[in-house]
Amino acid sequence: MTATTTDIPGYVTGTWTIDPVHSNVSFVVRHLGVTKVRGRFTDFEGEIVTAEDIRNSSVTATMRTASVDTTNEQRDEHVRNADFLDAENHPTLSFRSTGIRVDGGDYLIDGELTLRGVTRPVTLTAELGGFGDGMTEGSTILGVSAHTEINRSDFGVGEGVPSAVVSEKIRIELDIEAIKQD
Known about the structure:
Layout: E1 14-18, E2 24-31, E3 35-41, E4 44-50, E5 58-64, E6 68-69, H1 73-80, E7 92-103, E8 106-115, E9 118-133, E10 140-151, E11 166-180
């Protein structure tokens, strides 16, 4: 199946910069096996390139690990330390797409996630929210939501923390608004 600009209503090709003010990069992890703790990164940047054939499009993003926010400063400091993100030695985590596949109404964005200096393949399941007029005259925006699940131990995160305390599985959720640059 080929997904081109004629297959997606309002599809716009170009280079887009992620707008951190109108985007959210977050995660969810189980704590003590019974509750979910949510967090987000407040300092991130990225670029999306939409190609004529959506399968040739690309995504790159970088998050600053010190910007983690779980709404509890004591927990945030623990997540930033060497037990988890090790922000002092690994100030960023990053994603780089390696391919995009079409799956019904969803798009599967294959890529490489680098966390704590470890790079592993991941696949984001994405939903294209669409294209529209931005807030400033003549600007164009795109919206996309995506999610994936990783195993924290694959990246050396929380190696000394039992999975009964913090689950191995971490769900990553993205709600992105990007502004056309060209």
